[in-house]
Design a protein that fits this description.
Radius of gyration: 18 Å
Helix content: over 70%
Largest sheet: none
Shape: globular
Structural class: mainly alpha
Distance between the termini: 31 Å
Number of strands: 0
Strand content: under 5%
Number of helices: 12
Number of domains: 1
Order of helices and strands: HHHHHHHHHHHH
C-alpha cells in the first residue's frame, strides 16, 4: 500500500467519521468520494470497506456513552441498571424492521440503488423535509425530551423510519431523527437514540458484508480497513460532541440546506459526465 493509497483511506475515514452521525448520509458521501477518488481495490472490497469503517464511528458512541450503555457498571444503582437494560430492549426492538428488510435486499440495493443519481435525489428530498419539519416545530415543545421517555412502541416506529435509510443518500441518522421528531421526540433525544440505534444496525451490516466477502482479505486490505476505522473513530468523537452541542442552541435546518446544495451539485456534476 503506497502513500497515495494511504492518503485516500485517510480521506475516506475523515468523511465517514464526520458524516456518519450528522443527518447528511455517510454512505452517500463515501460513494460520491469513490466516484472521484478510486481506491486501488476491487469493487467488492469497496462495498465491504464503506460499511466496515463505520465500526470506528460505532466505537466513538460506545466510548462517549459507555456509562449510559453499559448495564453492569458498579457505579450504577439497581434501578439504573434496570433502566439501561430497558434501553437496550428498545434498541433491539427498533432494530428489527431494518434487519427484516435490509438483509434480504442488501445485494439489490448495492447493485441498483448505489448510484449518484439516487444519492442526489435523496439528498434533495430529505433536505427539503428537514427544512419543512423544522419550520413546523419552530417554537414548539416536544412531548419526549429524554431517551428514557421513549416507550417500546415509539422505539419500534423509529426503527420503521430507519428502513428509509436503506436507500443510499437518505442517511440512517437523518431518517431516524426525522422519524423520532415526528413521533414527538426532542432534537436531543432524537439524535441520542439515533446514535444508540446505529450500534446494532452498523455492526450487523458490517458482519453481513464480511461474511459475503468471505473474510478473504489480503494483508493490505486488512490495513486499509483498520486505518479507515481508526480515522473514522477519531473524527466521529469530535463530530458527536459538536452535534450535541450544536442542537442545544440550533435546529437541523442548516443540514437541510446542506443536503439540497450537495444534491444539486451531485446531479449536475454526474449528469454532465453521463
Amino acid at each position: 500500500m503506497n502513500i497515495a493509497e494511504i492518503l485516500k483511506v485517510i480521506l475516506f475515514g475523515i468523511v465517514e467519521g464526520y458524516t456518519e452521525w450528522l443527518p447528511i448520509s455517510s454512505t452517500g458521501h463515501l460513494i460520491l468520494v469513490e466516484n472521484l477518488i478510486h481506491l486501488n481495490q476491487p469493487e467488492e472490497f469497496f462495498n465491504v470497506f464503506k460499511v466496515v469503517i463505520q465500526l470506528g464511528a460505532i466505537l466513538a458512541i460506545v466510548v462517549l456513552y459507555w456509562h449510559k450503555l453499559w448495564p453492569f457498571s458498579p457505579k450504577k444503582t439497581r434501578a439504573q441498571r434496570e433502566d439501561t437494560l430497558v434501553l437496550w430492549a428498545k434498541i433491539v426492538i427498533a432494530s428489527i424492521p431494518a434487519a427484516v428488510i435490509g438483509i434480504p435486499f442488501d445485494d439489490i440495493i448495492d447493485s441498483h440503488l448505489s448510484t449518484p443519481v439516487v444519492i442526489g435525489i435523496t439528498l434533495l428530498v430529505y433536505g427539503v423535509i428537514f427544512i419543512v419539519l423544522e419550520k413546523h416545530y419552530r417554537g414548539k415543545s416536544f412531548a419526549i425530551n429524554r431517551t428514557s421517555e421513549i416507550d417500546l412502541r415509539t422505539a419500534f416506529l423509529i426503527g420503521c423510519f430507519q428502513c428509509l435509510s436503506l436507500i443510499p443518500g437518505t442517511s440512517r441518522s437523518g431518517a431516524t431523527i426525522l422519524g423520532a421528531m415526528l413521533l414527538g421526540c426532542s432534537r436531543g433525544a432524537s439524535a441520542e437514540f439515533s446514535f444508540f440505534l446505529g450500534i446494532p444496525a452498523m455492526a450487523g451490516a458490517s458482519l453481513i458484508k464480511m461474511i459475503k466477502f468471505g473474510f478473504g482479505f489480503t494483508g493490505a486490505q486488512i490495513l486499509i480497513l483498520l486505518l479507515g476505522m481508526l480515522i473514522s473513530f477519531i473524527v466521529a468523537i469530535y463530530t458527536v460532541r459538536y452535534l450535541m452541542g450544536y442542537i442545544r442552541k440550533h435546529d437541523f435546518t442548516v443540514f437541510g440546506y446542506y443536503r439540497i446544495v450537495l444534491g444539486i451539485i451531485v446531479l449536475i456534476y454526474f449528469g454532465l459526465l453521463a
